[in-house]
Amino acid sequence: MKKSIGVIDLGSNTARLVIYEQDDSGMVAEIDNIKYSLRLSNHLRAGRLDEEGVAKTLTAMRQFKKLLDARKVTQAIGVATAAVRQAENGRELTAAIERESGISMRVLSGKEEARYGYLAVLNSMPVDEGITIDIGGGSTEVTYFRDRQLIESHSFPFGIVTLTSQFFREEVPSEEEFAQLRTFLADSLATCPWLANRQCPVIAIGGTARNLGKIHQRQVHYSMDSLHHYPIQADAVTNILNALRRLPLEERRQIPGVSKDRADVILAGMAAFESLLHYAQSDCLLVSNKGLRDGVLYETVWGEQPPASTAIVRERSALQFMNRYQVDQPHSRHVRDLALSLFDQLQQHALHSFGGFERQLLENAALLHDTGRTINVYEASEHTFYLLSNVLMAGYTHRERLLLAMIASYKTNKLAQSQIARHPDLLGKQDKSLVEKLGHLLLFSRVLDRSMTQAISAVRLASTGGEFVLSCTGKQPDLLEYSLLDEPLSKLSKAWKIPLKVVVDA
Amino acid sequence: MKKSIGVIDLGSNTARLVIYEQDDSGMVAEIDNIKYSLRLSNHLRAGRLDEEGVAKTLTAMRQFKKLLDARKVTQAIGVATAAVRQAENGRELTAAIERESGISMRVLSGKEEARYGYLAVLNSMPVDEGITIDIGGGSTEVTYFRDRQLIESHSFPFGIVTLTSQFFREEVPSEEEFAQLRTFLADSLATCPWLANRQCPVIAIGGTARNLGKIHQRQVHYSMDSLHHYPIQADAVTNILNALRRLPLEERRQIPGVSKDRADVILAGMAAFESLLHYAQSDCLLVSNKGLRDGVLYETVWGEQPPASTAIVRERSALQFMNRYQVDQPHSRHVRDLALSLFDQLQQHALHSFGGFERQLLENAALLHDTGRTINVYEASEHTFYLLSNVLMAGYTHRERLLLAMIASYKTNKLAQSQIARHPDLLGKQDKSLVEKLGHLLLFSRVLDRSMTQAISAVRLASTGGEFVLSCTGKQPDLLEYSLLDEPLSKLSKAWKIPLKVVVDA
After folding, report:
1. CB B159 within 8 A of CB B264
2. Closest to B377 (Cβ–Cβ): which among A31, A378, A383?
3. What ipTM goes with this model?
4. What is the mean pLDDT of residues B252-280?
């Protein structure tokens, strides 16, 4: 039975409901997502949320409740952040929400909010050390983690909405105003000396970060349509900020990548990223598409601790894809076992020097090689490439994801070359050999289970007189598989430049 | 319960097994496909299939049986064509097949073979009148149909393999040899005077036709990756044939689009197309990806008669896609009803002059608008466009399929423009208005069922004082849907250039 989980994030800028579906093996996928722009920060008057703010919030929550009911969601988790936390009447509001819509809201402390950002990142990105910054409408959370453990965290009581109204009087802030903002940010960061000079990636969470990523991707004509884990050099952040802050609001709004409802407050957020990159002496910002609500979800599903390694993140991702795209799992797991066995035996014969990363690439490519069949059996490998390169897989950089997609969908050398040519900013000629070798290994392993019945249980590689002999142990001597091995074997042999022969060892 | 059907096509050139899965509503999708190149025509010695030919066939059939068992196929339908039909010992072979593999094979008459080609075309292409030609290894079937009814059919006892060995002594046939072949083909066609001067499309079935289509697509850098219903002008067929027939075999093999195992016999097939186009005075050849085995399947599933109209073909295709991509059907059917109701009412108010074709485009786009969600909820409309433009939908030309994909996935005018720009050979600026109008109509209808609960049962359009008022009849006055209508309504109003207003008529 599938189960739906709803997460409601009542933020200072927007309220958002995300609905996830959890499959039998516990894997989750987002299935619906709706938001209302509330700008609660602007409704804080003398420490209290005003009537209009309260009324708008209650309306939004009633609407969310309707969607939760329509989607038959039984577990709904509500969290409220800065605006509600800072408001004297915040608890009155959450009580009213619960009374009127039945949604129970937890008001998060700044520390909790920060930790959810950290959890979102560790559950979805290949990073072991880093700084997170989640800048919302009315607060900004930072954390520092090392060896995947949360070391420090802090919540600043300012966000893009409040910084904008505090520092900028005009649409186009003056140089002086901007300098004042920078000084304020530097002073604020200095209260967290544990951020200084870390020289690790700064991971930016939230709408401002997504906008920044999109702006940069358009500028450089990035070849992928994916934002999560997109890296931007510190210099580029400063350049984009300096260009944008001199534009009138209407022109800023027209910049590709800028959200229309965020153009007025985006500068303050970018300035915060710039200051943090400088203070931490970091040369790279990574955009995270996952944030608070994902952290809340991950905690619900996977518990308070992040996965112990990136390998686990990738494993879960592969399992989620297999479930979602209805892969024949006994088949794909068997192909995985055969491919890894060949990989390991080739290594024992000193026929390659690939390491653990390549082994895991092959493993996950084997598990996912049939995902494209969900779309269609014709051109299935093109569809596999499309799926794996276009749908977010947690735990991979973009480059790694492309390599995974190429190996999983490998068909011909020519196709691989055209895929490389489509991503000149991420792949190069040097990748050809890896993809070709692992691609042919996978193609061969797939034919070893062409009937999808796991009839060939094992392959053993032995070297005899300059030739390598693969003996196959199968259920019977005349399997369908044996009649189809010639072509993939000769291609494998050519790609690896090894004389290979198959014998049946029934 | 899903059911699997296997179709085995024992042809003169190749033997092929295709496995289809039939869903609860009777729709079928191909799930596996395997072939062996047997070249049975070459094993016909003095009217008998030689021992090697028989042995190879029996081996292939045993292998097919293994795949049928592995895939748990209960209904397997075997058909044999020219080589077996022409061989004196054909019945002995089919008896041996049945004995050794349990697959019962029906030896088709030439007329039956021809009729299956016609059935394949009528079940998958938008054509009401045409000539089909299916050229195999050892026979060639032609039919003529009008008003979707089969009028005449014939089977010639020659195919690409036999023509090649009969007329060409060398790899590169001489001008004289080629002239002799052309004369022979013209004389043969003249025995079917019902083909003369029909001036209707010639629909070419089989591997030679697919190769021809691919060659032409590469030459003109065609923007779609789809072969079924690809049109080629008669002149272009002659040009390609004349270029290819002067190349040495090895060079012919290297031409993009030519199958390596077909390069030696392809010329004879192309010459047959050329002669038929000439004799029928037809200026256009359409490539069909569907042939004998699909005809056999369609007969099994849909009966002996073809669908009465292309509209039915499109309906079935839409249903198959909805099942396959797990669309929420109560939702998509409701969106369809709302969109068509708006379309009809706009017409009653003389606000558009679209016809039945556009109405059906909107209908099927509404049914299929959510297919991309199967891939991912993020970028779902991009995925919808990918699916609908890349997976074959029966009953559409390529251009029509693109229009359908664009309307179903419509998000913004900008996105539509970029899609048009990607297909300059099929779409133009004149398509923008249609896509934009129907796209916004669909987007608006989708929001009318945003909760997916069919809470708004009807919309009525009335004109009052220069303004058009849409009254919505819903279950309650404060539906989620109503709170979300402002933006899509204002966009709809702008796209249609009509002042529109919504009132709730609870």
Report:
1. no
2. A31
3. 0.91
4. 95
